[in-house]
Amino acid sequence: MNIKYFPIPELDATGKLKTLFTTTKDIAWNFEDDRCRENYIALGEQLGIEPGNMIKTKQKHTAKIKIVTRKNGGDGILHPLDENDPYDGLITNEKNLLLCTVEADCVPVYFYDPVKEVIAMVHSGWKGTVQKISEVTIQKMSGEFGCAAADIKVAIGPHICKDCYEVGQDVFEEFAQPFTKDEMQKIFSRKNEEKYLLNLQEAVKLTLLKNGILEKNIIPSSVCTFHSQIEGHSFCSYRRTKSATQRMLTAIMMTE
């Protein structure tokens, strides 16, 4: 059994990282899902690591980030996570430890500081984006590991694009609190009297830039989970399928 995945080429080209995002070929990545264990075992065989060296988030659209080490290995994969302690991002400075999030239209954000050798994997849905989870990640990488924002490379993974993500006035008003009027004009375009189109990637990018990430170090995505295909493979999209269980695994690992 082979898991079909694609890398973030610009990050893997450093020779220090392994990154990936999966397709609709393999959709079970939450602990409670059938075939979840088998999928992680198969992925581990391809990557040369055990599921005990993988860690998954407990996502509830928060802006919480957890620093993890090898003692957290298997969290969310070999054993369940605490429902009352959610977090939507992971940070580590340990090698051969795969940090995992899952998405089905939300934005996966990959962080790498090659100077301090620190990585993070973040799930940024619209709620996490409003709460500026990427800002929280940068602050935590700086505070806990001494990372300088100017050194950090950030890749934005596949997500629902600005042409496909239709939202209502309620979402627009949520964004209007933390983002300025000028920023809102970059993030939203009006579709009709009741609906807007939301550019999540732009919102994440604006947050990154405001927190010292250099534009040259931001790797955008052109893959839309709603409509894109790569090599005949499509991606998990809640907007397209309305599935409560189908998810795309997104992950990053530092190698030796």
Describe the structure.
The protein has 256 residues and is of the alpha+beta class. The protein is 25% helix and 23% strand. It is built from eight helices and 14 strands. Strands 4-5-8-7-9-13 form a six-stranded mixed β-sheet. Strands 1-2-14-6-3 form a five-stranded mixed β-sheet. It has a three-stranded antiparallel β-sheet with strand order 10-12-11. α6 packs antiparallel against α7 (200-210). It is globular, with a radius of gyration of 17 Å.
Secondary-structure map:
Layout: E1 5-6, H1 9-12, E2 17-22, H2 36-47, E3 54-56, E4 65-67, E5 89-92, E6 98-103, E7 107-113, E8 118-124, H3 126-130, H4 133-145, E9 153-156, E10 166-167, H5 169-175, H6 181-187, E11 188-190, E12 196-198, H7 200-210, E13 218-219, H8 238-241, E14 248-254
Parallel strand pairs: 3-6, 4-5, 9-13
Antiparallel strand pairs: 1-2, 2-14, 5-8, 6-14, 7-8, 7-9, 10-12, 11-12
Annotation keywords:
globular; five-stranded mixed sheet; 256 residues; 23% strand; alpha+beta
Q: Report the uncertain regions.
A: none
Q: Helical stretch count?
A: 8
- Biggest sheet architecture: 6 strands, mixed
Can you give the helix content as a percent range? Answer: 10-25%
Mean pLDDT: 97
The SS-based structural class is alpha+beta
Question: How would the global form be characterised?
Answer: globular
Please give the order of strands in the largest beta sheet: 4-5-8-7-9-13
